[in-house]
Specification:
The protein has two domains: 326 residues, Methylamine Dehydrogenase, Chain H; 62 residues. It is 1% helix and 50% strand. It is built from one helix and 36 strands.
Amino acid sequence: MKSELLLVGALVCCAVQAQALDKVDHAAWYRTTKSRVASSPGDALPFDSLNCRLVGQYAPPYAISGLDVVGNLAYLATGDSGLRVIDVSDPASLSEVGHCATPGTANCVVKVGNYAYVSDGDYLCVIDVSNPAHPVDTGNLFEAGWLGGLVKEGNYVYVTEYHGKVIVMDVSDPVSPTEVGRCTTPGYANGLVKAGNYVYVADQESGLVVIDVSNPVSPYAVGRFQTPYVAEGVEVFGSHSVCVADGTSLRMIDVSNPASPSEVGYYDQDGYVYGVDVVGGYAYTASTDNGLYVIDVSDPANPLKVGFYPIPSSNPMGAIEAGGYVYVARDSGLRIIEFYGGGVEEGRRPPACSRQLNATIVRGVLWLPAAASSETQAPSCLLDAVGRRVIRLRPGPNDVQHLSPGVYFVSSPGSAEKVVLTR
């Protein structure tokens, strides 16, 4: 790429993603004391945001209680409205492409291969989504009480039952799930995540529960950590850490000794938190009446807010990161947000490059020259100084005025150009 990066005026740039979890409303106490924040029209021009911008939204006539995003499709669990499939290939123009009714109340969904597994009230439903425009309920249900969070790994699905159970199901035959084991928890089992031989359960008032599933037929609890509030969601990050969405806070828990988890740090945020997703050292959460938070958890002892996007007057059910965006599910629809991160000061080691890089000073707008008419435009992106993608770049002007000042790299196949963003 040629060093034709020019200075131009200023626009607006930001970032997003999201995941969802089912839950009962423990946030009532919070909403009764917290005044709601006024919303700007369509939430398109937030009065207060940090390193984030709205890139798409979808307001269907139903609430969204859970979602999974795979490729260009989002799979939504929508309560009495069943499973909905949304095309998210263009975040600015979202559209429903398929729908499948379910017998109960769809509150959580995981898509693996050609199937979507839906916790549907008292049932686990298996839906064939090989044709997203025409998803088909296989008709094979597993009945087990009020089901909550679920994860799939290998031939097994691990699902929580709200009255204190974790159930292990063999889905080697996807359309005929069979229970092979279960384990009780002391509280109300909600969100869960699996890593290695362990399942980590957000057990509401009983905090974090660690379950050994090395033998799926005989799972058993090996450890517990009592969080101070109500554990709703949990996610693994690093080699021995989990992040627990606990009331109005995120708790960073060291699980290097599964029998004796210990807290190493926490972050208090404004609003009740239902779920959390951790990708690339960032935790993404959505809180009631406030919006999306992005927390840097690369140092678990010192979590730091690095991004925020307001979503006032809402009841977010979770946030997940997928494909460079944050998807926030709420009772009134779906938000797609872009988190574009921040730079770092000079002196950090830049990404490996085969030649000397000369920096271009940029303020406001980064201009990316288009390829010659006879050439195909190679995909480009802006990386921070430790190699993490910040934003996608397009030929022409790219707004960078809201990025933190520092060193970045314009990366395209076979080349990299160093730029320094200034105010």
